[in-house]
Structure prediction request, 323 residues.
Amino acid sequence: MQALDGAHVAVLGGAGFLGSHLCDKLVAGGASVTVIDNFLTGGPDNIAHLTGRPGFRLVRYDVTDYLHVPGAVDYVLHFASPASPADYLTHPIQTLKVGSLGTHKALGLARSKEARFLLASTSEVYGNPQVNPQPESYWGNVNPVGPRGVYDEAKRFAEALTLAYHRVHRLDVRVSRIFNTYGPRMRVDDGRAIPAFFSAALRGEPLPVHGDGLQTRSLCYVDDMVDGLLRLLLSDHSGPVNLGNPHEVMILELAEAVQDAVGQRPGIAFHPRPVDDPGVRRPDTTLAEQVLGWKAQVSLSEGLSRTAEWFRLRLRNGGSAGG
Ligand code: NAD
Prediction:
């Protein structure tokens, strides 16, 4: 990644799951990295291996407050936000604030530094979609006043504000719409299906499936996602661009695949379906293929077996925090 060599990148939310993997790639590519994170849902353990590396800095700070980074900044990557339903239902107001006020501060930072800005948006802008797969041109089906609205609407606002800065201030922006991503450094207790399934399977307990398990998800391994995000960052395309793995599976199939990856079959326990839980979720990645030459490469079984190691280690160490 030549354009990153010697660049200074501010990664907001860089102590989280995706942010920390991005930091790994940025540092490996020769960039100086300043992580700004308040540790709401991430933590310093995720980037402990980077501390002390030349050019790497960690600042504990809430990005909804006035934001300043000394010196030149070439790229501002805004990944700060609770991301799992359990997290944003626990922190609904922080989620709305970081998507609105935090995005405003992050855009202000990029503007003052004449930096390129990348927004981590989400497939949740499509809500409970009535078209499948979802192309970028689909406007979505979001319940603004339901419990999940705090996340969906915060991200929809963040996209609108980002595009307004682009139109009014000519800010150089990139908008990624990230579909469900998984891999090492997910928290055991973050409430998403993959951590919940792994921790149950590894403890020999039935895997908790919501509803009848016929709802679908499309899951992208984290290495593929980071590659797609960096390609978008360095491309000429403002987006929004869907990034995700289009291989769609039913939750019941996912539960089977996790049991295969773990090599234990404790079975399934059915639980009530959360309010506004999407029935289907699958990215149309035609645009990413055309403009970024990007397509997810890691199969579900390969990604799950890499991830199994992580959860095995976490549970052996008795930890549920990030890192
Ligand atoms: P994460 O919770 O692991 O990371 C988010 C990070 O943001 C955490 O380290 C948290 O402490 C930090 N943060 C939250 N509020 C903050 C604030 N006010 N100030 C400073 N830091 C703050 O989640 P993740 O899965 O790594 O997601 C990262 C980004 O990608 C989020 O914006 C999320 O919406 C987006 N995204 C993720 C996925 C996914 O599947 N993981 C899917 C779609 C979108």
Q: What stands out?
A: The two ends are 26 Å apart (CA to CA). The pocket of nicotinamide-adenine-dinucleotide is lined by residues 13, 15-19, 37-42, 62-64, 79-83, 87, 94, 98, 102, 120, 122, 178, 180-181 (CB under 6 Å). The mean pLDDT is 95.
